[in-house]
Specification:
This protein is an alpha/beta fold. It contains 15 helices and ten strands. It starts with 5 loop residues before the first helix and ends with a helix. The protein binds pyridoxal-5'-phosphate.
Length: 351
């Protein structure tokens, strides 16, 4: 099979027609990698949905191929988003691909360098505001409602449509839905999209069961867990540093309909899971992505999975670790420097 992007592959389940100009970088079709080291901790069969392998390094590409294609179909020439980083990286790349102008609003100083570099090199107009993500999103909503500019945040329903295909891929790969699905929650578009995807696939007879959805917010940015807006969200996991999620209601619906939960994990737990993944699975994710794994480890320790032995759980790991090498290096020692000499090297290796 030749993979030419998720719109072409899942066309019959998406709101596109022959007239839709497909703007694609051949996103999707990401691997579902078994994580044996997590099986040991949880007693479950754990898989990582490795979304960092999308073209711009995060799952945002799934939504963006749809959003930019539909914006073009409508004749838009400018798209705009607020972003903690990955949305802007993806919007900028797909806008170039589709030949439309891209404007992004970011919170000043809180964007991982790799993400900013992506938006800039793809020639997006990047505007940093003195405010946080929630402030940026409010401005984008206001401007796109009043001017001929297309909003490409996950409030755009086509974003959710594209992102739901990750659930299709999981069912296609496993032969059915897993028993559990764990996912980081920021603006809550992705948990909404997966739940929509799982439900649609079941209704179509393409899968038989539905997973429990397990969402995880960072402790300093956990509005859904606390059931109140967080005015000044704080977490090292900048991609989920959001105090007033746009898809709040539908995230709660996903949680309740699936009999799952939305819980919080501390920055320490996130960083531990982040290192654990890198050290034991060979997969390097960005901190926010590790929230799903941190949450699963937390639940396992609390006995949540007792009696569920060998059930399948998929953890979405949302973005690539290379986007934010600074966070990785902060934790690590500098490499040892020695003379260019065989003996010195052998003695360091212990040979
Ligand atoms: C956007 C993003 C999230 C959060 O997804 P939401 O749909 O906003 O809940 C998590 N991790 C990464 C890497 C992201 O880019």
């Amino acid at each position: 099979m030749r993979w030419t992007g998720l719109i072409n592959h899942y066309r019959e389940y998406l709101p596109v027609s022959d007239k839709t100009p497909v703007v694609t970088l051949y996103e999707g079709n990401t691997p579902l990698v078994p994580a044996e080291s997590l099986n040991k901790i949880t007693g479950l069969q754990v898989f990582l949905k490795y979304e960092g392998l999308n073209p711009t390094g995060s799952f945002k590409d799934r939504g963006m191929t749809m959003a930019i294609s539909k914006a073009k179909e409508k004749g838009a020439s400018i798209v705009m988003c607020a972003s903690t980083g990955n949305t802007s990286a993806s919007a900028a790349a797909y806008a170039v691909r589709g030949g439309v102008k891209c404007v992004v609003l970011i919170p000043n100083g809180n964007i991982a360098l790799g993400k900013l570099a992506q938006a800039m090199i793809h020639q997006a107009q990047v505007i940093a505001i003195d405010g946080n993500f929630d402030d940026a999103l409010n401005l984008v909503k206001d401007i796109t409602a009043n001017y001929p500019v297309e909003l490409v945040n996950s409030l755009n329903p086509f974003r959710i449509e594209g992102q739901k295909t990750a659930a299709f891929e999981i069912c296609d790969f496993l032969g059915d839905a897993p028993e559990f699905h764990a996912i980081p929650v920021g603006n809550a578009g992705n948990i909404t999209a997966y739940w929509k995807g799982y439900k649609e696939y079941k209704n179509l007879g393409k899968s038989q069961t539905l997973p429990r959805m397990l969402g995880f917010q960072a402790a300093g940015a956990a509005p859904i867990v606390h059931n109140k807006i967080i005015e000044k969200p704080e977490t090292i996991a900048t991609a989920i540093r959001i105090g007033n999620p746009a898809s709040w209601k539908s995230a709660v619906q996903a949680r309740d309909e699936s009999q799952g939960l939305i819980d919080l994990v501390t920055d320490d737990e996130i960083l531990q899971a982040y290192r654990f993944l890198a050290e034991t699975t060979g997969i390097f994710v960005e901190p926010a992505s590790a929230a799903s794994v941190a949450g699963v480890i937390k639940l396992a320790k609390a006995g949540y999975f007792k009696g569920q032995m060998s059930h399948r759980i998929v953890c979405t790991v949302t973005g690539h670790g290379l986007k934010d090498p600074k966070t990785a290096m902060k934790e690590l020692p500098e490499p040892v420097v020695v003379k260019s000499d065989r003996k010195a090297i052998l003695s360091l290796i212990g040979l």
